[in-house]
Amino acid sequence: MRTERAQDAEPPPGADATPGAEPPERHEEAAAPSGLDGLPRQGGRGEGAGKTPRAVVMLLHGGREAGLEAPPPWNLPGLRMRPFGRSIARATRGRDVRLTAVRYTHRGWNGAREDPLRDTSRALDAVAEEYGEVPVILVGHSMGGRAALRAAGHRLVRGVIGLAPWCPPGDPVTQLSGRSVVLLHSDRDHTTSPLASQTTATRARRAGARTCSVTIRGSDHAMLRRAPEWHRLTAELVTGLLGHGPLPPAVGTALALPPGTTGPEGNLDLDRITGARP
């Protein structure tokens, strides 16, 4: 991944990501101490406390390639997840779905330390301890997408929605077996590679996952351009994966592809499946 250089401003895009490769990300990733939009995180309690949910949706924001310092109170990557949380909350209202956010202990992935993965695994364990065997959908952006994919082997995880995820070519995919995985990526992303998302979806399908990738043309890594489409599609995917509503037909068809499928059937274009225009 490439660098997001400030917490409070969106940097100009850098050079194009090398096709098929995943350059290291260095943008800020910390969560606010009070969570996103006041939502509970990990085992924390928020609105509706005391009632066991039927499902949990866990948000994971972006981060840096390296950074051992503690996260600051507020940052741009965390703010980016707020509208996703609001859209998901509206779509799941009345469904007994608890929305929560992972709080990272360090800013970076930090190589073999894999700090966000450890944080996500602890958050999932906390959900299991507090609520029992409830299904969890992970929604992660950029480095948070990488953490979501890597943590998907946890027994509670039913699905992963990756938003412009960081997908290094050597990352394992066997943990995704039996899960539903949808990766959304802009064709103009200069921070993480859209081709790597497609490749990861194909690899995961071979490993026994139900997968597809969706290209959002004309957008960007920060998901600012065409933001309503990002938010709406993510909420629709969450409700669909939880069985609370229909998936977009093309997504449902792609998720049902046989494991050996390697053609374009699993690589969708948002404008073609919705008739929208960038």
From TrEMBL:
Extent of the signal sequence: none
Keyword Lipoprotein recorded: no
Residue ranges of the region described as Disordered: 1-50, 258-278
Pfam families tied to this protein: Abhydrolase_6 (PF12697)
Biased composition, class Basic and acidic residues, residue ranges: 269-278
Residue ranges of every copy of the AB hydrolase-1 domain listed in the record: 58-237
InterPro entries cross-referenced by the UniProt entry: AB_hydrolase_1, AB_hydrolase_fold
UniProt keyword annotations, A-Z: Hydrolase
GO molecular function: hydrolase activity
Protein name as annotated: Alpha/beta hydrolase
Biological source species: Streptomyces koyangensis
